[in-house]
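Limitations
The structure tokens in this dataset are predictions for the assembled complex, not deposited experimental models. Users should treat interface geometry with appropriate caution, especially where small molecules or nucleic acid strands are included. An illustrative entry is reproduced here so readers can see what is and is not provided.
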Amino acid sequence: MKYFTPDLLAECRSLDPEVAEAAAAKWQRRAAAYRKRLQEIHHRLPLGVRRLMRSITLHDAYLLTTNLAKERGRPQFFLSFKLADGDGRAGVQLRYDMVKPLKVVLHEGTAAAGTILFALYDEFDVSEDGTLTHSILMTGGVETRVRFTNLLVTLFTRVVAPGRGRSNIKELAEMAAS
Amino acid sequence: MARAAPPPVPATPTPFRAERMGGPDGAVEWWGDPLTDAEVIGRLQNEDDVVVRGPSWRGNRDEARRVTVLAFGGCEEDSPHGGPMSLPHFHPDGRFPKSTYFLTRFPRRMLGNGNRQNRRRG
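Predicted assembly:
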């Protein structure tokens, strides 16, 4: 995360009003800077990314599954979420065509094993060589960073996730390392 | 046609009924008379939104936290997301139910926008 960083979020949540108010102002500036950045790179974002940004927000979305696959030798990464406010859309699956290994950053060192993962904030960016990055900061200070060339978005009208109730952070980290 | 001026900000942080508007800018619409604590709690527990309006960011935040804790026994704070008019808000601990409590003020840059703004309904 370059703009909506976990450190700044922690400051925004501070019980010290001096710290929180200054951080809130900084957050507004960061949000404006990110919107400007998105405008700059908009023409370089593939259709799936633009569709995602246009149609839903991942904020408060409940992480259901993370899956890795290989399609004709090329790695793909799948994330599925149950959406909090989807305007009739219950969930979403994101399928990335990855160009570099998945990164999982644990900003709080070790998140509690029982932490349920919700998406908080996400950012897209494009590097000089055209590689796209989607960073998603989740509860427990868990951040996934996917570097990809294309994104396929599938919206679900109904989501059922039997047996959910634990975060699987350890398994997610192992997936990044594999 | 002249645009109606926004209603005056209450002298103390005051909760109102609210609803997030659809669209990418994250705007919030609010309406009605000020809510009592009991009305706020009922609304939040019913997964409806509330907005606090008042003269200061800190006062609004404190009041939003207070009533969210009253309703759920705990809370988690989130910074604005989802658009230029989105507001900071509180969730209950664990994010369920997904009721959201908004803090608000009228940022100066929003007041000149006649189409989309955090505004009073009606």
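Some entries come with short summary sentences. For this one: Residues 105-117 of chain B have pLDDT under 50 and may be disordered.
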